[in-house]
Amino acid sequence: MTQTTAPSPLPLSEADTVPSLYRSLLAVLENTLTVPSDRPDETPRATLNCLWALAAGQPLAISQANQAVIGELDPTAQEVVQTLVKRRLNGELLPYLVGRQDFMGIVLTINTAALVPRRETELLGRTALDCLRTSTAVEPWVADLCTGCGNLALALAVQAPHAKVWGSDLSEDAVALAAANAQFINRPDVTFVSGDLAAPFESDAFLGKFDIVTCNPPYISAAKLDGPYKESHRHEPRLAFDGGPYGIKIIQRLIQDAPRLLKPGGWLLFEVGLGQGEPIRQRLARNPVFDVIGTHPDSNGDIRVLAARRKS
Q: Residues 69-77: what's their mean pLDDT?
């Protein structure tokens, strides 16, 4: 669900100093733009600041919007920012327009090869960090499946520098983006490989070696993607959302395949969609491979992350 924000006039201290084009575009956005419910920080002013900075040659993530210098643009840049505003109002996602997105405190590059990282996935990241902090391994191994742009793998590597992290994705374009992000944040030690779920790690070098396996799998049903979600996800890769007829096809495969990668006592952590948490928790509880099942709700009390420990 989205909401339209009420106009908020510029402070008097700014009204006489910002360019007139900025003021007029801000008025358009405040009267027209719908703020995504899953990205509430994309307010009209923050959005315009990012687009203005991009037109001036300074790509910024939404978290950096207040760093934008709102100065006069040359005629070419003025045309660019007006075009960018039109594209945003036509539904193109701001992170794709500016080529930047932040996740768990790090700024990454982003393009249409991967879905835009969501704030809700930071719950998965925090849960994984908790497991890493309590791990007795000197250098815990982490595999992030369905890694997308590499946001979760890289955030874990940054915040748990003692961990050794790999990421994998079925999409070779997403893997290329993730590898570029590893260079972008100067973490070339994080390795990204292409392949379907656990397949890239099906060798003696990896089987039974991981302390943690994380995954943000596709979990939206195909029917929803062709219906209510079609417009809101039209600019993102369908592969990253499509969980099959009931939305749990990939999750079922994950539960089946991931334990082979885990050490005894290792953790499988993954995100689920709204309403999926309890049924999948019950499925995990019936699986003899696991001995501890944990649920992690979001701020609304909905289970969004499940944790399962491989039996020691």
A: 96
